[in-house]
Automatic annotation (TrEMBL):
Matching Pfam families: IspD (PF01128)
Similarity annotation: Belongs to the IspD/TarI cytidylyltransferase family. IspD subfamily.
Catalytic activity: 2-C-methyl-D-erythritol 4-phosphate + CTP + H(+) = 4-CDP-2-C-methyl-D-erythritol + diphosphate
Organism field: Emticicia aquatica
Keywords: Isoprene biosynthesis, Nucleotidyltransferase, Transferase
Full protein name: 2-C-methyl-D-erythritol 4-phosphate cytidylyltransferase
Superkingdom of origin organism: Bacteria
InterPro entries reported in the protein's UniProt record: IspD, IspD/TarI, IspD/TarI_cytidylyltransf_bact, Nucleotide-diphossugar_trans
Taxonomy of the source species: Bacteria, Pseudomonadati, Bacteroidota, Cytophagia, Cytophagales
Underlying gene: tarI1
Length: 239
């Protein structure tokens, strides 16, 4: 593992865009879900601290305009965040995830590698982050994914459904890591309704998407029951 970290570090700059510019409408909470406490600490802080474990990384944290002051308040007394203050850029988010990623990408002025990660996936592990940088340095793209475990049916307009072969289906997670020039070129495009993640944008630009294996624990906190699962997983991982 240490060999590849060494080789990536020697060759390419590393950035991560942590997208946390959404409103969390499906969570139906009073504050945006990325600031909800998970075992006493805001979800977004768990995520950011995970990425700060990567050597020499520059973080671009994308936030809703109205919550930037709140971010400064909650990080003022956080020793890890303060120690790495030179590694941070804060950017205002856009009207969609695509626009928020684009705002983050515009801050990057060098070539290298960039990992895009949902601020609300705090259970990502360091091995996946490192693997995504390694594979993206070799292939240009690295998109985290897990195999579907449930049965799946496709529902037609007439309400009838047919079984789908799940052995061909993967669920897509983040990080999604790319060569920066490749990604910048792909994002020079009008936003499309099917851009649900960065991989769909790069694919639209004709790029081949390389999948890497993710982790079933790397959940996206979307609705209230996800908080209960995330708290339990976090407790388990902290021993
Ligand atoms: N305009 C947006 C929309 C989403 N995101 C971020 O993209 C990630 C994944 O999006 P999602 O889970 O859908 O978050 P929200 O858009 O906040 O939630 P919802 O769709 O329920 O409103 C989140 O970390 C979210 O903050 C963003 O940076 N900017
Ligand atoms: C990027 C993503 O997390 C991959 O699973 C997902 O597509 C985000 O979707 P959302 O509708 O913004 O939650």
């Amino acid at each position: 593992m240490s060999n590849f970290i060494h080789s990536v570090e020697n060759n390419q700059r590393k950035y991560a865009i942590i997208v946390a510019g959404g409103s969390g409408s499906r969570m139906k909470s009073e504050i945006p879900k990325q600031f909800l406490p998970l075992n006493g600490k805001p979800i977004l802080l768990h995520t950011v601290e995970k990425f700060l474990q990567v050597a020499d990384i520059q973080l671009i944290v994308v936030l809703p305009k109205n919550d930037i002051y709140y971010w400064y308040e909650i990080t003022q007394s956080n020793q890890t965040i303060q120690a790495f203050s030179n590694n941070f850029t804060i950017v205002v988010g856009g009207a969609s995830r695509f626009q928020s990623v684009k705002n983050g990408l515009n801050q990057i002025k060098t070539d290298g590698l960039v990992a895009v990660h949902d601020g609300v996936r705090p259970l990502v592990n360091l091995e996946i982050i490192q693997k995504s940088f390694q594979v993206a340095s070799e292939k240009g793209t690295a998109v985290t994914s897990v195999w579907v475990k449930d049965s799946v049916r496709e529902v037609g307009l007439d309400g009838k459904s047919i079984a789908i072969d799940r052995t061909k289906l993967k669920l897509i997670q983040t990080p999604q890591t790319f060569n920066i020039n490749l990604m910048k070129n792909a994002f020079e495009v009008d936003e499309q309704s099917f851009f649900t993640d960065c991989a769909s944008v790069l694919e639209f630009a004709g790029k081949t998407i390389t999948l890497i294996e993710g982790d079933y624990e790397n959940i996206k906190i979307t609705t209230p029951e996800d908080m209960i699962v995330a708290e339990a997983l976090l407790r388990k991982n902290q021993g």
